[in-house]
Amino acid sequence: MTGYIVGALVPIVFTLLLRSSKKVKKRGVPVDVGGEPGYTIRNSRFPSPVETSWEGISTLAELFEQACKQHADKPLLGTRKMILREVEVTEDGRSFEKVHLGDYEWLTYGKTFETVCDFASGLVQLGHKREERVAIFADTREEWFIALQSCFRLNVTVVTIYASLGEEALCHSLNETEVTTVICGNKELKKLVNISGQLDTVTRVICMDDEFASSATSRWTISSFADVKSVGRASPLDADLPLSADVAVIMYTSGSTGLPKGVMMTHGNVLATVSAVMTIVPGLGSKDVYLAYLPLAHILELAAENLIPAVGGIIGYGTPLTLTDTSNKIKRGTKGDATVLSPTVMAAVPAILDRVRDGVRKKVDAKGGLAKKLFDLAYSRRLSAINGSWFGAWGLEKFLWDFLVFKKVRAVLGGRIRFLLSGGAPLSADTQRFINICLGAPIGQGYGLTETCAGATFSEVDDTSIGRVGSPLPCSFVKLVDWPEGGYLISDSPMPRGEIVVGGPSVTLGYFKNEEKTKEVYKVDERGMRWFYTGDVGQFHADGCLEIIDRKKDIVKLQHGEYVSLGKVEAALSISPYVDNIMLHADPFHSYCVALVVASQHAVEDWASKQGVAFTDFAELCEKEETIKEVLSSLVQIGKKARLEKFEIPAKIKLLSTPWTPESGLVTAALKIKREAIRKAFSEDLAKLYT
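Structure for AMP-dependent synthetase/ligase domain-containing protein, as requested:
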């Protein structure tokens, strides 16, 4: 009998110990700093901000050169071979490009460095001067990375521009920075030609693709990427290496409000973030394979692609539309990037992870029957184990569920993922837990901004909590300051709350040619540390981890005095299976909210077929009263479950059948909604919702 009692107590004691250890561990600790009074936390393992993790290295150029010398014969950059490109036409007459891609073809570290040196020399031979700026305007690919490192070797500042940027913002970015050389793909070259008469300083264009319209315009000298390398190889020049304080990149934000602003990042700024992430990703090293598909014009991707070579890893390039075997651009029956590459680490934005989650759920629901019941049982058992309420699902049982159920799910991203980094926007708790369980890999959710080189906070690998963004990165101090107007104070109980302010070596210099805005949000304290005022509102948990709870600009006061945080409500409601995207709208002259909802075609059509709702196309289905009622009912249920107030849950919605894309100008390249652009585009629909 005693043995049975002991056996029964073991899992209970283990669970209690597990829970108590979570409470005890301090991930961030208070620290005394200068500047505006507030409540400040630092990383518990680093008493002062980290500037570099590599002795004697102070710039990205030095870091890359050192890596290439250490791993000269090892593969570094990989690109898939194009086998076939074709156009498929659907029954309703729509055309879609489909590609069949082969294996990865690799450049070694040594060959990559040689190519970087050749291209750098070629740039100079073409007439580009050190004090002039180069813009890289293209989708993520190995030529983008090579061009970036080439400019770093010349101490030439790179202006990064999203490939999806609209013409007005593109003109603004190139003219404001007085760019003389643009490096782009053939697709982007066509965009440049359309605005050639509006560009003041561009004299040279280098096309990454060998085939391009050389007679596109007589205003510029147009060269191919390969030709520039050849010219440089024939006339090699010595490097002109930068200093830590030199500006490496002017990164134009994706412009969720108005025209984009150019953030000036020094080599020291980016190196600080790279060094900090190096210390917190477990076991990051030469065995790691990284799948690169996010925009390199985004600081999250740029930092990641500078980190991977520094640890001897491998970078394989892909795209969001070819990521998996079922991605939109992959020819049926052929393999996506993740299947071929089998990456071990990936960075992702929440919108991509939401798609993975929805894709898995779609497959499970389609199978139905025993397969669905088995998946649901496995998921609930793993969820109980993570929450600490069921010990049995950790050991042998965990192995069985992984083998029987989750192994197939993990194959979606190649089967070897051991760590995921999510950033760029808030990740819903539902998606975070779903991906964590199904992929069996921790998700390090980070918080940062372009203005802080992505450096602010990052959740640690053993932190299984959801809804938080971790403790300060080793390169950052994170401070909360009072925001009395919003009702957030550092003296609040049970947790200090306030506007989030980030300080440390990753905080950038400010906005290019925008001193007024720079002075508004950047401050230098009496100790010489730079601080950036984010406009986000957060609270610190007892273990030093940050939770984002609001945004100053997203708060709207309703007619009867209630405050609504638009972003908070959108994040809560976005987990509805019917929602592909959502924008909440609040009007101070009304007592309720409304919403524009981009419908998930699969989920809505699946519901319609089960309910026997007839329709000719998806647009018609989204207009039907019963469809709108069903989606609204889902939002109300989810809102109540998330403990939203009645006035926060939309009373009326407009259901939209067409997705919001960067090309439409309604979301950024990082897939954040552009609130003002959407309000303008759907002003009539919003007005009707209030009648």
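The chain has three domains: 24-49+347-415+417-551, 65-73+108-312, 558-689.
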